[in-house]
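RETRY 2/3 - previous attempt timed out on the joint model. Re-submitting the same 610-residue input unchanged.
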Amino acid sequence: MRIPAVLLSRPVRIGVPGAALAVFLLIAPSSFDGYGISLMSKALALGVLAVSVSILAGYSGLPTMGQAAPFLVGAYTAGVMSTHGHTVGVLQLLCGTLVAAVFAAATGLVAIRTRGVAFLMTTLALGELTVTAAGEWRSLTGGTDGMYGITAIQPLPGMAALSSDRSIYWFVLTATVVVIAVVWWVLRSPVGKLLLACRDHEARMRSAGHPVTRYQWLAYVAAGALAGFGGVLMCTVNAYVSPDDGSFSNSALVLLAVVLGGAISPLGALLGAGLIVATQDWLSGPFPGHGPLLLGLMFIVAVYALPDGVAGIRFRVPKRRGGPA
Amino acid sequence: MTDVSSVSANVSPGSADASSVSANMSSVSANMIEVSGLTKAFSGGTLAVGGLDLTFEAGRRHAVIGPNGAGKTTLLNLIAGELRPTAGRIRYNGRDVTRTSRVKRSRLGIARTFQQPTVWSTLSVADNIALAAWPHSKVRGKWRRGRYRTLSEYCERYLETAGITALADRPAGALAHGERRMLDIGMALAAEPRVLLLDEPAAGLTDQGVERLLTAMRALPQEVTVIVVEHDFAFVSAVADTVTVLQDGKLLATGTPTEIAADAAVRTAYLGESGVVPDAVEEVV
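RETRY 2/3 succeeded.
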């Protein structure tokens, strides 16, 4: 059975799921209650984290288990700013992104030296260290109890504070759309080609004279900055930060989201994050206590049935060999 | 036979001038690549290259031949910086590059192809060439779309040289073996190297592909130094003006293709390997 060529064309492949997602994101808030809306905001924040993982795991061939660490750094930056009276959302996003980038720049020097499983373990260790540090540094983070007293933000200076779940959702959605658009634009540029080439054949890149380690470090810093951005959003949504936000299960869930969504698709990573939040929080209503089981089943199904991820369903281009197909 | 003499006749004026060229341009030494006491022992105890002393003169077409396991590919890997020698020095254009990384060596002008042609399989053929040219191009800000397009347009000439213009938009992973080899060679050419290392470039090519490869090699600027590792002696005698024979990681003989083809020691070395290759040697003689 051949798939009509028009269904495989780029506009259709990206446009149809993209449009469906856009419609859902715009319409859903009006039909959900406050809880549902805040879950969607949470899914978006996790989605940004998932996109940052897909930059590393998908584009750069660096499967990371520690992206929750810069996420946590971003969230704490926003939390500290809020408790000190700096409640301008855009400013929090900028600072959280910047601090997370600096954090990633430092940790990246260690992580980038390793590859494959070693990279996985190094990033896992860095993530766990960050969580532990957040739990111990009570004066700044409030320790394992978490950080309370985070006040509502104003998106821009002079605007009213965001008081409802709905207004927070629109803020988070706008910020997410802007940052994903930037990521998309960068990954579609020659920069994305450099990363893909490093992933395809790193040794060949080096032989061709490309400073691969520098590229990957930069990708690591950029992904860290993006994760920090997501962390700020998470702080905005929850009005609370604790070391749990950077936990191993969060990192693993997000890597799962990327696997579900298709490793090199930012859109897929977003969808994957949505699926995970839905499974964990919505389906736990009808199936109480079975969230982890459902996630596990979903993962098995995903790996066996959709090796290219949700974004790859029925859109897989058959491999062409030899002459024109 | 006639083929060999015509090729060497084409090449010899240039190579005879090699010393006068180096006198004119102080940065160019007559010996482009010079290895001394070069040794590579692998962890299993295998001595792939054992104390080689070789010079590859600038602007000449060198071939390195020898039976399987003679250390030919290891020698290329050592020159390209893919491997670190156990002992010995490598000089490139008068400069000691023994400890220089392969990224740096590539930027200094040493390009190579691989025995198993390696390409970036998810990218298009045109992108493969452009990315191979990237570190060596003077275009600034190539990460910007417009500049990258400029680079890509410039690189169309290499697609043409390699005969893969028609495949430009195809993902490199979907190429047939011979096409992939031509792409690998095109990528090496796109680096505009001063030293070109070719690891069995003719293996797996159709007759037409070999013909194209020969044309591409003859079209190389005269000042490019080529070192080609190859099994096929007919190919070697068509492209090379100097042949170096390795056996068990040691130098066995060096000379013109005709001299080498007549060399008794070389025949013995090849006979020890298999009965097929001597026929190829025979044909040339």
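Chain A touches chain B at residues 189-191, 193-194, 196-197, 199-201, 203-212, 319-322 (CB under 8 Å). Closing ticket.
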